[in-house]
Structure prediction request, 409 residues.
Amino acid sequence: MARAHRDYDDIPGTYVFDADHHRKGYDLNMMCMSLNDPANRAAFAADEAAYLDNWTLTPQQRQAVLDREWLEMLRLGGNIYYTFKIAIFDGLTMQAVGGAMSGVSENEFRQMMIDGGRGNDG
Amino acid sequence: MAEVLYGVATSHVPAIGAAIDNGKEETPYWRPLFEGYEGARKWIADAQPDVIILAYNDHASAFDLDLIPTFAIGVADEFPIADEGYGPRNVPAVMGHSDLAWHLAESLILDEFDMTIVNDLPVDHGLTVPLSIMYGKPERWPAKVIPLAVNVIQYPPPTGRRCYALGRAIRRAVQSFPDGDNLKVAVFGTGGMSHQLQGERSGFVNTPFDTSYLDRLGEDPEGLIEISHTELLRDAGSEGIELVMWLIMRGALGRNVREVHRHYHVPASNTAAGLIIFEGGEALVSI
Prediction:
């Protein structure tokens, strides 16, 4: 079924977590959420690929997780509050992930925020 | 009787909590933010609310994609600190006010707000960071807390209009609490201000929007409730949509309020951090 146009579709660089997005990303997000549990974090640390076998991810989602492709995870239905669980696992800050998603280094991203953040033309 | 006397709106950025937990409040990066919290901490030391009804959103901690309540109220006596992936924050457990929470749940549902009632509710940074902002690092939280979890992650969140109406219903419900014993109640609205954590547009901040929002919250909340979700996504960023929760606080204060403190600073991590405090109702009589 084709997705109906939404009036937020034209907002650049933004992945609204609506019904369509939710259905695409359900398993990916639930896998991320499982990392709230220390035992699951230990299992993920021991063997990421084997851990991911417990979840019905698409091959693309699986690869995006293994490669830490933050933007790709969003495109494949991820929600940032869920995918950030992997960043927490990696010891990354939200600024590092924000930089990775917008194509700059953590330091450049941090400086952009200190300078007042990304404006409407950013 | 009991009355909602105080309203606090504040961001709930996890990095602010981490800065407090790790003693970084005086570092050059954090100092300008925490300077603006000093007045808020002095104010709450005087105001001493007995109970805080705290509107926040859970971030994949207590709720997941299997269960997404739009409005959920915590009725337990105690709420544990959630493990968000780092291990739980080292802050005191949050003590509830079960009597008032159940009264609120019953009153709100009979007032046609279909609340989800929750006992088992681990609370995450959305709830604990505002407490840390206001109280610092006490051995136990000075107020009891009734968690009011609002879905703002799954689109669509409740509308600003609905949040404001819920706040007004909370005001009525608190007033009808039979065992009030002059209970002083504060309502917190948390999250915001403008920020976007995701996508190529991450790092988006809109200071003119935030300034206008702070200016209008006291005197023109019924103008703010007209802002659509798409306008919020566009002008406040995808996570700035959390600002609807501030309208629960504002609705709970009644028409006339006095602004007692305001602070705005960019950045706190990836976010424009705002804080504003109002007094309302009987608290206005003591001017």
